[in-house]
């Protein structure tokens, strides 16, 4: 979509070519320009919708280089209206060219390698080069963005074509100051977008996400093999459609996740394994093997370990496109308590032993796949067993307190993570990545907009020689966390990025004449929501303290609401989404204020129900992600109403917490599930069961007894059909 905006009306575009050694982030000092190769010039790329330039792509170009040329020609045409012809060599002597390849570049003393790329001007010619296919693609997008294009978000459908901004410039002048070439490389090797729980992903929006990744500087897509073994989200579901898109862009595919149970569980082979090899399955304190999906198998049983390892290798051999494999235990899983497993030590020790074993097997069977394990929950602390340095470790500060920076000792959880990460760095010689929670499912789309916080975090992580970073990437609430995704990609290349300048540009392009008010709103969201909102581990404030940020945000919301109807599209739509974010934050603050003021549970419940209605009413706007239409019970738990079973016309009859290992007190309410609840209907009652009884009774004696009593209590011969556990659990 073509649009004009205050930040992109200039005709002349400057490419500032910083000299090596000048101290700007991303410059490669070793790649010095050769004297006399470059000179000051102005390049007229197009005039009145016509161009004398052609794009040169050698016959030996890789598929990714060919795609990069297509992208360059397409976007230059959208910018100027001119057609830039593509040829394998200079079309006519004396006519200028834009060269695209990973070959040698004029002005560099040595060739580019890896993801390093260069933007070089030599006479009237322009060179966009990189050390590999995706690096060439980065060079193309870098040049286009310097010419005025912006890609703040993937082209998801809810943006209605306004995700990217393409100014209309029939005449385009590229002015180059006398200096050396632009040469950039990322500060982090792996820059990941994580499909995570895949609540809102489809094949269509995953394609849109992949198209955006190299524009923002990301290089890795993380996809679960089969999320929690539930069959709802997994790589095989999208493999055929997405593999060509990944390969065309030379992107890295990482598959796995919480998934020991994907290779050994009680339901496999119709339950035969559990019956014939009961000793493979993890034992509880009672000495009985537990068939639950969250139970870690017996890692001291050599046959079980061999079975799991063989399963992983067989899976990877059949999927050559996978480059990184995540070998993680079940989320909050329960570890085997048999004597031999306990003798092996803590879950962290057992996880390290098992990962080392699989790594040695994969070195011969799958040498091109990198193995990753997890520092999280019971495996957070470094084990005494040395982890093979060829393994990638993902460090997960899931209980991070966002009132304070990760390195700020005022946050008790943060202090623990900072100390533990430093200890990992001391003991482990391999690469460490950070599994961030800058977009967190537990926030339930609350607008926690913290770009400055992210920058400070990342700068500190780099002092610990971190090599990778990831973020959950759900399309359902993308706009709320749009800035997080965009700046994380940018900061991964340049941690000294001028964030104020970027945010001003963002506000001008996204919100037009309302940029000033939008800037103020984003500042309040960053400063106040983490301190006074309902984030886990944020300390409860007094009602008087909460009232101040509420009033400040309410005033700004009114100003934006007055301006928005007068704006043209797409500014009006973007402002309406920002107003939705304000609406959620204000409702959240009001609930927090009411709780602090000691209002009755009935009054608080009314506020929560109003918030639930608000979120459900705007579930398709790209701002909130509503979990299968079951937001209300989740919000009750979030705001401490999980025990209010007698409020209104419903009540929880039976609740449970899934099998787990260590579980902090703060997580109990969040992880609680309603097994059975009752809804009053006139003089009757409707019982709703939140368990998949058909699957549960096959493996769990307690579930069989529960089902029997339920049928008897309902005076029925059979249980009525309903949604499965995977559909109703949220």
Indicate how many domains the architecture comprises.
4
Structural class comes to: alpha/beta
Helix content: 25-40%
Largest sheet: 8 strands, parallel, barrel
Shape: globular
What is the level 1 CATH name of the largest domain?
A: Alpha Beta
Please name the CATH architecture of the largest domain: Alpha-Beta Barrel
- CATH fold category name of the largest domain: TIM Barrel
Strand content is 5-15%
Q: Stretches where pLDDT falls below 50 for ≥5 residues?
A: 1-39, 643-648, 716-730
State the strand order across the main sheet: 12-13-14-15-16-17-18-19
Radius of gyration: 28 Å
- Quick one: CATH superfamily of the largest domain? Glycosidases
Number of strands: 22
**Average of the residue pLDDT scores:** 86
Q: What's the total helix number?
A: 21
What is the first-to-last residue Cα distance?
37 Å
Q: What does it look like?
A:
The protein is of the alpha/beta class. It is 38% helix and 14% strand. The protein has four domains: 12-184, 2-Layer Sandwich (Chitobiase, domain 2), CATH 3.30.379; 190-264 and 301-497, TIM Barrel; 511-629; 650-728, no CATH class. It is built from 21 helices and 22 strands. The chain has an eight-stranded parallel barrel with strand order 12-13-14-15-16-17-18-19. A six-stranded mixed beta sheet has the order 4-3-5-7-6-11, covered by helices on one side. A hairpin with a 2-residue loop joins strand 6 (117-122) and strand 7. Helix 13 (515-532) packs parallel to helix 15. The longest helix is centred in the C-terminal third of the chain and has 27 residues, at 571-597. It starts with 11 loop residues before the first strand and ends with a helix.
């Amino acid at each position: 979509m073509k649009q004009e905006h205050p930040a992109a009306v200039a005709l002349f575009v400057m490419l500032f070519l910083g000299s090596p050694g000048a101290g700007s982030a991303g410059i490669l000092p070793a790649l010095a320009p050769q004297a006399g190769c470059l000179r000051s010039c102005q390049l007229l790329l197009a005039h009145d919708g016509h161009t004398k330039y052609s794009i040169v792509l050698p016959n030996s170009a890789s598929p990714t280089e060919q795609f990069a040329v297509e992208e360059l020609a397409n976007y230059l045409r959208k910018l100027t209206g001119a057609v830039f012809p593509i040829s394998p060599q200079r079309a006519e002597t004396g006519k200028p060219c834009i060269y695209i390849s990973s070959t040698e570049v004029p002005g560099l003393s040595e060739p580019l390698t890896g993801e390093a790329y260069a933007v070089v001007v030599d006479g009237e010619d322009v060179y966009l080069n990189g050390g590999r296919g995706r690096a060439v693609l980065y060079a193309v997008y870098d040049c286009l963005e310097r010419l005025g294009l912006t890609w703040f978000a993937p082209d998801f459908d809810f943006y209605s074509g306004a995700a990217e901004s393409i100014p209309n410039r029939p005449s385009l002048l590229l002015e180059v100051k006398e200096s050396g070439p632009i040469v950039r490389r990322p500060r982090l090797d792996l820059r990941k977008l994580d499909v995570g729980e895949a609540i809102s992903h489809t094949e269509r929006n995953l394609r849109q996400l992949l198209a955006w990744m190299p524009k923002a500087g990301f290089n890795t897509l993380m996809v679960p093999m089969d999320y929690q073994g539930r069959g709802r989200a997994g790589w095989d579901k999208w493999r055929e459609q997405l593999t060509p898109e990944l390969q065309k862009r030379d992107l890295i595919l990482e598959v796995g996740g919480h998934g020991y149970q994907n290779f050994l569980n009680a339901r496999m082979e119709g339950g035969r394994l559990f019956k014939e090899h009961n000793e493979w399955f993890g034992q509880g304190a009672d000495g009985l093997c537990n068939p639950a999906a969250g139970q870690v198998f017996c890692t001291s049983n050599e046959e079980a370990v061999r079975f799991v390892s063989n399963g992983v290798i067989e899976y990877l051999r059949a999927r050559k496109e996978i480059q990184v494999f995540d070998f993680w235990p079940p989320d909050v899983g329960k570890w085997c308590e048999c004597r031999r497993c306990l003798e092996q030590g803590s879950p962290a020790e057992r996880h390290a032993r098992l990962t080392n074993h699989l790594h040695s097997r994969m070195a011969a069977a799958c040498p091109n796949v990198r193995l990753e394990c997890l520092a999280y929950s019971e495996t957070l602390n470094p084990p005494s067993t040395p982890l093979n340095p060829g393994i990638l470790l993902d460090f997960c500060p899931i209980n991070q307190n966002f009132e304070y920076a990760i390195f700020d000792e005022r946050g008790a959880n943060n202090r623990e993570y900072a100390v533990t990460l430093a200890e990992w760095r001391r003991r482990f010689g391999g690469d460490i990545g950070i599994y961030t929670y800058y977009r967190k499912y537990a926030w339930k789309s609350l607008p926690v907009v913290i770009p400055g916080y992210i920058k400070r975090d990342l700068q500190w992580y780099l002092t610990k020689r971190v090599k990778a970073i990831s973020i959950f990437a759900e399309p359902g609430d993308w706009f709320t966390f749009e800035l997080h995704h965009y700046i994380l990609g940018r900061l991964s290349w340049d941690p000294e990025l001028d964030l104020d300048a970027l945010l001003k540009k963002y506000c001008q392009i996204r919100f037009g004449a309302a940029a000033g008010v939008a800037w103020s709103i984003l500042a309040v969201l960053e400063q106040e929501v983490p301190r006074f909102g309902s984030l886990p581990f944020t300390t409860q404030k007094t009602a008087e303290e909460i009232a101040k940020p509420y009033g400040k945000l309410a005033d700004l919301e009114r100003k934006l609401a007055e301006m928005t109807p007068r704006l043209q599209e797409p500014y009006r739509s973007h402002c309406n989404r920002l107003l939705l974010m304000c609406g959620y934050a204000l409702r959240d603050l009001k609930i927090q204020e009411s709780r602090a003021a000691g209002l009755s549970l009935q009054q608080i419940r009314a506020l929560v129900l109003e918030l639930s209605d608000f979120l459900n009413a705007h579930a398709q706007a790209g701002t909130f992600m509503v979990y299968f239409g079951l937001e209300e019970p989740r919000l009750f738990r979030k705001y401490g109403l999980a025990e209010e079973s007698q409020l209104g016309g419903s009540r929880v009859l039976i609740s449970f917490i899934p099998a787990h290992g260590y579980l902090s007190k703060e997580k109990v309410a969040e992880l609680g599930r309603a097994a059975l609840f009752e809804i009053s209907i006139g003089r009757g009652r409707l019982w709703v069961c939140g368990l998949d009884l058909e699957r549960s009774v096959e493996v769990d004696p307690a579930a069989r007894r529960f089902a029997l009593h339920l049928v008897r209590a309902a005076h029925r011969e059979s249980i009525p059909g309903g949604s499965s556990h995977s559909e109703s659990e949220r």
